[in-house]
Amino acid sequence: MSVLSESDRAPGLLLGNDVQLPVDVEIGGHVVIHAGTVVGRGARLQDGAVVGKPLALGARSMASRAVPSPAHVGVGATICAGAVVVIGATIGDGAIVGDQAQIRERTAIGAGSVVGRGSAVDNDDTVGERVRIQTGCYITAFSTIEDDVFVAPGVTLTNDDTMGRHAPDYELRGATLRRACRVGGGAVLVPGVEIGEEAFVAAGAVVTKDVPARAVVMGVPARVVREVPDEDLLERWM
């Protein structure tokens, strides 16, 4: 059980044991920081943020029950109002976790990345640097998102073809989003698909198979309609 004590550093601040909290961290009201959490210099923890939250798994959850290492918030990172960062999560330097977003255990958010308001990044995910995950997205467990990826509002990644009706040894398979690909608003990615480097998934598409690098796909199910032109590649806009 996590033991919390009141601190006078900010109104309503509750701290667990052995929290590393530099003096220049900006702390809002009613923030909770659980035991062992490491917060980097110049970080911002806005009103009602919870960092290092203990695990709370359902009886049928396939997530590991091993106790993760403490949560880590990087230098200059921001955990916005009402956001929850679970024990074992790592937030990179300068990253932003938006209002009411959640980052689960054993997930890493790369430096300079943004997770939008109300988005959920599930356990055992890897998110690279300078990634933009917009409002209301669900990034399912065991997914990989490489650097400079754009995920538009309302995107859903999935990892279970059986929808829960499987043997205990069934392997969940999240999506893989390669460097600088873009996924449009409301798109759905089925378990295990890969979106290639610099590919473009149109809004509302349902991706049922791998998307080649630089391909533009749209529709239900998604199909290739053309290639991303040279002038639209990331290097043109850096």
Structural write-up:
By secondary structure, this protein is mostly beta strands. The protein has two domains: 1-56 and 64-136, UDP N-Acetylglucosamine Acyltransferase, domain 1; 144-238, 3 Solenoid (UDP N-Acetylglucosamine Acyltransferase, domain 1). Strand 29 (215-218) and strand 30 (223-227) form a beta hairpin. The N and C termini lie far apart (47 Å). Strands 3-6-9-12-15-18-21-24-27-29-30 form an eleven-stranded mixed beta sheet, with no helix packed on it. An eight-stranded mixed beta sheet has the order 1-2-4-7-10-13-16-19, with no helix packed on it. Strands 5-8-11-14-17-20-23-26 form an eight-stranded parallel beta sheet, with no helix packed on it. 0% of the residues lie in helices and 29% in strands. The mean pLDDT is 96. The chain is built from no helices and 30 strands.
